[in-house]
Amino acid sequence: MSAGIGVDLESLWIRFGDFVAVRDANVHIEGGDFFSFLGPSGCGKTTILRAVSGFLEPSEGNVLIGGKNMKGIGPNKRPTALIFQNLALFPLMKVWENITFSMEIKGASAAERRRRADELLDMIALPDQGDKLPSELSGGQRQRVAIARALCAEPDVLLLDEPLSALDLKLRQHMRTELREIQQRVGITFIYITHDQGEALTMSDSIAVMRAGVIDQIADGKTIYNDPATAFAASFVGENNVFRGKVKRVMGDEALIATNRSGDLVARISTANRGKLAEGDDAMMFIRPEAFAIAPEGATGDHFVTARVTHEEFEGNAFNIFTEGDGGKEIKVSIPNLGQSFKDHTGQNITLEYDARNAVVVPAGELAAE
Amino acid sequence: MPSFLKEFFNRNGTGMGLTILGLVLFWTIGLIILPQLSMLDFSFRPNLPPPEIGGPKDVYTLENYKYLIYGPEGGSQDYNTVDLRVFFRTLVAAVCVTIFNLILCYPIAYYLGQSKGSHIRIFAIMLIIPYWINEILRAFALRIIFGETGVLNTLFVGLGIWDTPFDFIRNDIALYAGLGYAYILLMIFPIYNVIESLDRNQIEAARDLGAPWWRIHWRVVIPYAKPGISSGCTMVFMLSAGALAAPQILGGPSSLWFTQLIYQQFNDNNDWPQGAAYAVVLLVTCILFVLAMMRLFKVNMGDIGK
After folding, report:
1. Which of A12, A354, B158, B306 has the most CB atoms in a 10 Å sphere around its CB?
2. Which among B208, B211, B212 has the least Cβ separation from residue A81?
């Protein structure tokens, strides 16, 4: 669906003095999409959001909304509405006044505003709460009021700056579903900023993974999870085990990696890096904990890893085995709990097996901090 | 013993608690309430030479209050128009000074409260340091600026902008400037304190929702700053109405301040009861006026303390 108004960032640079907060960002956001910028704090994702909303002028490059260049247009004149991390509800205004603030600015009558507020309160499932003050609502309710206030301005693009981070875990998971539902109902473009990969994966049509001002990869969640373009994307999104080494041989879409610790291993070259890896290049190979299975003892080959088990834990839905790994890091293995008997391996060597299609190799690069 | 007192003694110990309590009570009762009550008592007595005090003529009377309204008995006019006019002019002028100060100080306080960085501290120090100089010297400094041969007149006449010197003193401009300047900090700091705690995101949220800057102030910043604004206005109004040095030094010959009348009664006429009556009238009127304003603008007494 491309009914909504899209957003484009063209060669966007944002500098604060000598510090480069955003480096040459080029992003096309399809109208009507739920688009997330995902990255650790300080990676420049909020800076991008402020540039889209108009609170910040880019140092270079352009922000286009619906194909229209936004240069010199202030935040109060842009077709965007921003939901702040701390919500920024007006504490002295009643809930209904908060929601219809944008109509008040345009000079709508009190009766008209009241009617619209009641509609929106119904939509966010808070009927009859209009006369309360924001401080009289719970965290989740305030969250929904902030969404209603932004939607009341009838923006073409809704910008959300980590709006769920102040909520507790349960509420956060519930609000994910709710946000996604609201987005599909109103059909406008959502741009969502988060450092929580779970939020990004569950809600987004598309995700941009950011690191230190640079966008590493833009793709849908499945692609980013299964086919990361960089070492950072592979290590930041979801749990992953890293094996460092050098490319020994390229065989079509696959490569044989001479790992520092675990011998020669085979893996799929991630789509974005096909044709770019050559023999002798430094590379990193990633295998997800759930991609491993326990192999018969003594099995060898290019898809077997043998390592000493340091400890094990039972997580309910899975048994987790931790072994000594590369560069001081542990290898984590998750075996789904299907009721099978489970032997304690602590202190012993274990042989693990994986399918080369589930291992991915990318050029060596910076890993996400843990 | 009420629970708050018990808790107070538990926290500070009996010795320290009694000392603090004693000092506070001495301060409020001994230095404020008793002298004021004695003034109130004075205001209801006739002005008698010392030997007759406590004698048969020393009775309670409303004479001193009547004097403010009707003037001397057998006087040429029905009402004491001279003193009454000074009284009301003082109140109106104090209101004007307060409004003028608010208009001047709100932007400064907003700027100080919402900006970040070390230059804010420097600005604050630059605002405070002039107040190390005593009030009378500051008033005379303004006289030098506004006087007939003062800095402004020399400058403008010298530049040929004005033909003759402008009389800032007679036109009360010097007086208003002096009063305004005298209490500028008492207006800036309460507003600054409140605005400093205002979440910047609220201003940005209002802007993002389409509000122009004046609307943001009207709907978001001013309602939030109301406790600070009312605290500042109350102090500036009370102190302007009760000011003595600035009117004395900067006021024109024809524009007496009501406090100057009180001063004359005490010192020049040696009529303490009359002076006390005038002072009581000024104090009570000011308090009633402030309470009425607080009612009008829906301000709580607790907000004033902010």
Report:
1. A12
2. B208
Q: Are A354 and A292 in contact (CB under 8 A)?
A: yes
Please give the average per-residue pLDDT across B73-90, as a whole number: 83
The pLDDT tens digits of the residues spanning A77-125 come to 999 999 998 999 999 999 999 999 999 999 999 999 999 999 999 988 8
Q: Where are the domains of chain A?
A: 7-226, 239-363
Q: Does A101 touch chain B (CB under 8 A)?
A: yes
Size of interface A-B (CB pairs under 8 A): 60
Q: Do B204 and A84 make contact, defined as CB atoms within 8 angstroms?
A: yes
Give residue B132's Cα distance to chain centre: 19
Side-chain-side CA neighbours of residue B43 (13 Å)? 20
What local confidence, expressed as pLDDT, does residue B238 receive?
94
In CATH, which of 3.20.20.80, 3.40.50.2300, 2.40.50.100, 1.10.8.10 is domain A239-363?
2.40.50.100
Which pLDDT band, with edges at 50, 70 and 90, does B302 fall under?
A: confident
- Return all residues near A46 (Cβ < 8 A) that are at least 6 apart: A161, A162, A193
In tens, the pLDDT along A234-289 reads 999 989 999 999 999 999 899 999 998 888 999 999 999 998 888 999 999 999 99
Facing B204 at nearest CB: one of A55, A89, A102: A55
Taking CB atoms and an 8 Å limit, are B209 and A101 in contact across chains? yes
At A236 the pLDDT is: 93
Closest alpha carbon to B40 in B266, B273, B267: B273
CATH topology of domain A7-226: Rossmann fold (3.40.50)
Residue A2's pLDDT is 45
pLDDT above 90 for A165: no
Choices 1.10.3720.10, 1.20.1290.10, 1.20.210.10, 3.40.50.10190: CATH for B62-188+226-304: 1.10.3720.10
pLDDT at residue A1, rounded to an integer: 42
pLDDT band at B305 (very low <50, low <70, confident <90, very high): low
